[in-house]
Design goal:
alpha+beta, about 400 residues, globular, 4-stranded antiparallel sheet, 4-stranded mixed sheet
Length: about 400
Amino acid sequence: MDFGLNDQQSSIRDMVRRFGAKELAPGYLARAKVAEFPWKEHRRVAELGLLGMLAGPEWGGEEEPDFESVGIMMEELAYADFNISNCVLPPLIITSIMREHAVRRLQEEWMPAIVSGERMVALGLTEPGSGSDAAAMRTKAVKTESGWRLNGEKTSITAIPWATAAIIFAKTQSESGAAKVSAFFVDMDRPGVTMSSTPDPGWLPVGRGTISMVDVDIPADALIGGEGEAFRTVMNNFDFTRPLLALTGIGCAQASIDEAVEHARHREVFGSTLSKFEGISFPLAEHTVHLESARLICYKALWKRTQGLPHTADAAMAKWIGPLVSGRAIHDALLTFGNYGYASEYPHEQRLRDTLAVEIADGTAQVQKIIIARELFGREFVPYDTKRP
């Protein structure tokens, strides 16, 4: 059992840490307050080769992806700027899906633009009436003479305000009449597509919003993967996005804890420093332990992914515990600064609002617990019909 980093992982950590400290951290607070995508910083991340880490060797990645390295990169970026880190997540997801399941035409047209940071492609799964209960989706795709016709609505889509295309999940009907879920690549400039943004208390540079599709015609080769196989193939990507999301919260929380430690070291009160008071030092120690515990779960899940081992339960554990301990750590770090911590000129209240998004994205805590129970204890612990389409 080896808890150390190999040379490549150490190199990635050091590179991203230097880049984050120099180019991202100083501007985090200003960027976080504005609903504008940070294209300049996003493209700088791309220049470091980070957007293509899961895209395959043809597009700048490795033949066999190292998911621990991806986690290290995401955590280090989030330490400097939580939102920049989460702007990286859609390209990682989309390039991973397209590498495995998209036709050559789509790969050649879109992969270079995604990994260079020139274009954003979003992922549309959630609907107004269905989130984690993805089988309840109502968006439909019907075959036409030239391809497919989509009708439906997707909501809470990460980065959709800035996207020029999206992978959309929709129900298709097999020859036997059974409804299955398929995935499609949809350009946002197609007739019948409209988009809108969702106003949020945080996560502003990343953004999220809604897509409405009314008789949207797409070509036959826009199908991603096999027809009716989206859950079996495309959806397994959530087993690595969950620990990555958790690590963005952990990285952001670690920054607040480190700042609180330095503040406690120098802040004088009652003739001493805050660091001498157990009411300050004990919570900081406890949060450090909780963050380290969550971090280990995340990297265990990512290590299993790299090794090709089952990791659905581990990913759900990471997604549950990571946001939970991150939010608590940032909250107490804020309180350590007293009245300064509550001021908008300090980063803690902004981090608290930003990281709240991680508690919801890719499934809430309750959904993760259902997955954990299902994977570890069996389907007798599942509160829904597992035979639904």
